[in-house]
Amino acid sequence: MKVKNVNSRDLEQIMILEKEVFRENAFSKHLMGELIHRNTLFLKLANGKNKNELIGFIILIKDRKDRINIINFLINPRFQNKGYGALLLKNTIQRITQLKEIKKVVLNVQVSNSQAIKLYEKFNFRKNPKKIENYYQSGESAYLMELFIDSL
Ligand SMILES: CC(C)(COP(=O)(O)OP(=O)(O)OC[C@H]1O[C@@H](n2cnc3c(N)ncnc32)[C@H](O)[C@@H]1OP(=O)(O)O)[C@@H](O)C(=O)NCCC(=O)NCCS
């Protein structure tokens, strides 16, 4: 398994996979393309044996001078629960710690997504107990989760 930067050729598979997992695309194909080209960390986990097989991806944006926001993260359902989410997140955090100016990593997660919350907690993200009501289109609330790089 290899963690690599996403490129434009991955876009089609990423859009399909995102729709399969979340039932809707959070961003248009155009915006996803922009994210690839802009100052974003957009990483994929690819199967070394079958280069075309996308195992998962993660998108990060630097939304403040000292902060990274994980705006999307998923593992292909056919490959979930095999440690790949942990692998991709670990590699991502390692890359972030090399960015000296970054002090904090944040993300929002559905309050019902205990699988993801457990994974983030395993990597020292802490849940802000105050829910963000009606965060998603479905009306579901979100938790803000934060990781302080200094605490690692
Ligand atoms: C959340 C997600 C990325 C996790 O990836 P994954 O490859 O399935 O997870 P891993 O196999 O690496 O498991 C890592 C940890 O996650 C947690 N976890 C994984 N599957 C779990 C399950 N079915 N129930 C509870 N916890 C689970 C555990 O803490 C696990 O560590 P452990 O095996 O030591 O207990 C993946 O399930 C996914 O893509 N879900 C749909 C999209 C999504 O919710 N993205 C996050 C949006 S914020």
What can you tell me about this protein's structure?
The chain is of the alpha+beta class and 152 residues long. It has one domain (2-151): 3-Layer(aba) Sandwich (Aminopeptidase). 29% of the residues lie in helices and 31% in strands. The protein is built from four helices and seven strands. The chain has a seven-stranded mixed beta sheet with strand order 1-2-3-4-5-7-6, sandwiched between helices. The protein is globular. The two termini are 25 Å apart. It binds coenzyme A (COA).
List keywords for this structure.
single chain, alpha+beta, Aminopeptidase, 4 helices, 29% helix, binds coenzyme A, globular
What's the CATH H-level superfamily name? Gcn5-related N-acetyltransferase (GNAT)
Q: Count of DSSP E strands?
A: 7
Q: Kindly report the CATH topology.
A: Aminopeptidase
Radius of gyration: 15 Å
Bound molecules: coenzyme A
- Enumerate the strands of the largest sheet in spatial order, edge to edge or round the barrel: 1-2-3-4-5-7-6
Beta strand %: 25-35%
- pLDDT averaged residue by residue: 93
Q: What coarse outline follows from CA principal-axis ratios?
A: globular
Structural class: alpha+beta
How many structural domains in the coordinates? 1
Q: How do the SSEs run, as a string of H and E? A: EHHEEEHEHEE
CA(first)-CA(last) distance = 25 Å
Uncertain runs are: none
* CATH architectural category: 3-Layer(aba) Sandwich
- The number of helical elements comes to 4
Q: Which range best describes the helical content: under 10%, 10-25%, 25-40%, 40-55%, 55-70% or over 70%? A: 25-40%
Largest sheet: 7 strands, mixed
CATH top level? Alpha Beta
